[in-house]
Specification:
53 residues; mainly beta; 4-stranded antiparallel β-sheet; elongated
């Protein structure tokens, strides 16, 4: 069996549409919520994506 590490799968939701990205995050080193600027396929432009539950 594999070890359970500090990395967890998180969901990034677009602030302007319903677009969603899935990524991994190290919970030990980054305790605050993640906020990234990524490309939104439905709007065809870069927008802010925030970590969702």
């Amino acid at each position: 069996m594999a070890k359970k590490g500090a990395r967890e799968k998180i969901k990034l939701k677009s602030t302007e549409s319903t677009e969603v990205y899935w990524t991994m995050k190290n919970k030990k080193t980054h305790t605050s919520r993640l906020e990234l600027k990524k490309y939104d396929k439905s709007l065809k432009k870069h927008v802010v994506f925030k970590e969702a539950k």
